[in-house]
Fold this sequence. Notes:
Elements: H1 4-18, E1 25-28, H2 32-46, E2 52-55, H3 58-67, E3 80-85, E4 89-90, E5 96-97, H4 104-112, E6 114-122, E7 135-139, H5 144-153, E8 158-160, E9 176-180, H6 189-197, E10 202-205, E11 207-208, E12 215-218, E13 224-227
Parallel strand pairs: 1-2, 1-3, 3-6, 6-12
Antiparallel strand pairs: 4-5, 5-11, 7-9, 7-10, 8-9, 12-13
Helix pairs in contact: 1-2, 2-3
Bound molecules: arabinose-5-phosphate.
Arabinose-5-phosphate is lined by residues 29-33, 85-88, 98-104, 107.
Amino acid sequence: MESPKDKAKKAAGYAAAELIQENMTIGLGTGTTAFYFIERLGERCRQGLHISAVSTSQKSWDLAREAGIPIRDIDSYTSLDLVVDGADEIDSQKRMIKGGGGALLREKIVATMSKEMIVIIDRQKLVEKLGAFPLPLEIVSFAWKATVLHIQDLGFKGAIRQTKEGKSYITDNGNLIFDIHFPSPISNPEEIDRQIRKIPGVLETGFFFNLAGKVIIGYSDGKVEIRT
Length: 228
Ligand code: A5P
């Protein structure tokens, strides 16, 4: 049985898939909302829509293959028409935290090479201030302990992400994730981002600024709202 949250995610993902036009090059996001986008886009491809896609994760690559979406290697393109991806939090200035699914680095690369980013979310992802959701950082495994110490020296608390089996979570790029837990929502994400980026072992943060275009908000009654 579909939960109200799943219904909201599905509404957003399906609505985004309806916006895809013939011959577009599309970046496929990662996560449970992107899953529905891929599902519906696959249906449209099987009905005759011609597009080509690249993926932000191995997981979405596999889903796309299964769904019948023509998927290409990322280096087939240096620019894309559109990326459709989820978010963990988004504020009224469309600043986001992403990376709950661990794909933040590839997601940011693909978003940056896309002419437009459509964000698909359920209503609960809209926040007044970012930071209730932990901020993921992708860090290199080389000297990770020194990198963690450096992050902590800046006053941030958190932990290396673990799998259910209790092992370190490894990204598709072979790196680790450090999730920062803020004691309360934050007012200065840009400043925090700037500080963290100075640490050489940090490859990318889960803050996404100036990337989101349309935001499609799904509701549990199946309706959607599109904010431009
Ligand atoms: C993946 O790394 C993330 O950035 C997702 O886009 C984000 O976590 C949203 O995921 P859900 O749609 O599963 O909530």
